[in-house]
């Protein structure tokens, strides 16, 4: 129910067309009708489309039938997003956004409304990392029995296969990325040879995915859940605000200090954190090259070179 036109934010359209190709374009064409259907189904009144919104999802601020504010989130169903609802259900609002309703088959979620314009990016880096580490520690819980989540071993293994394949692409040679790719492949193989612990992980944890709320100071959003070791989850946080570290005097020392502080703050093995940070930065950098985002690719690869 709404007099608000369901439109697609520019960033979402650009990302899905560039990153997901035909499936992304098809989803974008169907999204207004899809969202309108859920407004009716769940008796919601749309207030506004969130701009710029999510990187890969359409977010609409809504009111429930009783007037409660909420957020309707709809996105393309992928292997990474398929179990978001299951992770949110398991956390049940504990350090994460609370899920109010869901249709997992169509990747549509009804969530409590947070302060979408206030993320940890609004804080100075040191303070943001402290708050982020606190949220992460509360999210790292034992997964449910017979859980549906992919393991770090399986997921990182599939990323290694892709990275090995992409190594032969001309763009990788042109970017002088081959030594970093080889190091990332070797390092990740050693990490995957052992699995020291099994926690439910967020999977895509960074400052932008932690929002302010009325219920708690900070709550995590947008998980791409995995089960495995905490160092893998922490590695994506270590990559956050790369441009700040790379622009500082002595960037290599600055990167190493960040890794040490993050590892100490949550009692994670520093060398495993360093290894996963290297792998995730190189993998993200090479993926960015393949979709034509050379600016991000250069940042990720330069960061990886300093780990």
3D architecture notes:
The chain is α+β, with helices and mostly antiparallel strands. The chain has 2 domains: 10-113, Phosphorylase Kinase, domain 1 (2-Layer Sandwich); 119-305, Aminoglycoside phosphotransferase (APH), C-terminal lobe (Aminoglycoside 3'-phosphotransferase, Chain: A, domain 2). Helices cover 50% and strands 16% of the residues. It has 11 helices and 11 strands. α4 packs across α10. The radius of gyration is 19 Å and the shape is globular. The mean pLDDT is 95.
Ends: how far apart?
Answer: 51 Å
> What is the CATH architecture term of the largest domain?
Alpha-Beta Complex
| Average pLDDT for all residues | 95
CATH topology term of the largest domain = Aminoglycoside 3'-phosphotransferase, Chain: A, domain 2
Please count the beta strands (DSSP E, at least 2 residues each).
11
Spans where pLDDT lies below 50 across 5 or more residues: none
**Bulk shape:** globular
Number of helices: 11
Q: What is the CA-based Rg, rounded?
A: 19 Å
CATH class of the largest domain, anyone?
A: Alpha Beta
Write out the strand line-up for the largest beta sheet, numbering strands in chain order.
1-2-3-5-4
Residue fraction in strands: 15-25%
Domain count: the total is 2
Written as H for each helix and E for each strand, in order along the chain, the element string is HEEEHEEEHEHHHEEEEHHHHH
Fraction of residues in H or I helices: 40-55%
Structural class: alpha+beta
Keywords: Kinase, Transferase
Pfam families: APH_6_hur
Protein name: Kinase
Organism: Peterkaempfera bronchialis
């Amino acid at each position: 129910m709404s007099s608000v036109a369901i439109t697609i934010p520019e960033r979402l359209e650009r990302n899905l067309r560039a990153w997901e190709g035909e499936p992304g374009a098809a989803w974008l064409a169907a999204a207004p009708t899809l969202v309108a259907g859920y407004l009716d189904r769940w008796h919601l009144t749309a207030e506004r489309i969130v701009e710029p919104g999510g990187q890969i999802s359409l977010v609409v601020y809504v009111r429930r039938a009783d007037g409660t504010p909420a957020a309707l989130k709809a996105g393309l169903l992928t292997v990474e997003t398929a179990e978001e609802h299951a992770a949110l259900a398991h956390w049940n609002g504990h350090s994460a956004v609370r899920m109010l309703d869901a249709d997992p088959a169509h990747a549509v979620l009804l969530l409590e409304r947070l302060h979408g314009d206030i993320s940890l990016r609004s804080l100075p880096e040191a303070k943001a990392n402290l708050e982020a580490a606190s949220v992460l520690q509360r999210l790292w819980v034992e997964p449910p029995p017979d859980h549906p989540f992919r393991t770090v071993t399986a997921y990182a293994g599939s990323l290694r296969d892709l990275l090995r394949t992409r190594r032969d692409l001309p763009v990788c040679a042109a970017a002088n990325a081959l030594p970093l790719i080889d190091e990332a492949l070797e390092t990740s193989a050693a990490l995957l040879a052992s699995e020291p612990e099994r926690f439910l992980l967020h999977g895509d944890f960074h400052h932008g995915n932690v929002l302010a709320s009325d219920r708690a100071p900070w709550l995590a959003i947008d998980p791409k859940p995995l089960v495995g070791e905490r160092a893998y989850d922490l590695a994506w946080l270590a990559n956050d605000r790369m441009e700040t570290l790379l622009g500082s005097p002595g960037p290599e020392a600055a990167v190493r200090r960040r890794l040490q502080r993050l590892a100490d703050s949550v009692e994670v093995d520093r060398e495993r954190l360093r290894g996963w940070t290297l792998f995730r930065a190189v993998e993200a950098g090479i993926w960015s090259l393949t979709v034509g985002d050379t600016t991000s690719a250069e940042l990720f690869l330069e960061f990886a070179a300093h780990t």
